[in-house]
Amino acid sequence: xxxxxxRRTASDDENNNDDVASAKVPSDWQSQILSGLxxxxxxxxxxxxxxxxxxxxxxxxxxxxxxxxxxxxxxxCPIKDLFVxxxxxxxxxxxxxxxxxxxxxxxxxxxxxAAPLGMSQIGAVIAVSSCKGGVxxxxxxxxxxxxxxxxxxxxxIFDADVYGPSLPTMVAVEDDKVRFVxxxxxxxxxxx
Length: 192
Hints:
Elements: E1 3-7, H1 10-16, H2 29-37, E2 41-42, E3 47-48, E4 55-60, E5 65-72, H3 80-92, E6 99-106, H4 137-150, H5 167-170, E7 180-181, E8 184-185
Parallel strand pairs: 5-6
Antiparallel strand pairs: 1-6, 2-3, 4-5, 7-8
């Protein structure tokens, strides 16, 4: 992911009446920054981003620009922009800093050592259902899958309509040949 940079301008320094350029970096600069960032709470995990280990590679350069990696649990985090803005605001609020560079990353899942069984590697399941036909279940499922994929999630769709599956007509696959992986049918793919 691309780094997002926020720097103070000369007008910011004039408005603060502080000579930020001459502000000495304190010896406990790391603990000051981490303490400030610990007020940012992940609402899904109900804990602060420092305790969760999201803040990594904390550095400050000679000009006073602080850089951090914000390692989220998923690249599709819906509040990642809010996290970046809050980090920048807190870091820029410290008198010894000259700017904030926040790089978003996501935790990497370790590769399985053996072939996964069934749904053991599935992180979440979203079911789209109705007791009536023709109400847009497949359309909703396809739009939801493409939206999640656009946000960085790895997705798949299982159409359980045994009498008239409509996904093959809605989503053209790259290759429709049936392949087996061991005793399992390999999924058909579209867009990765």
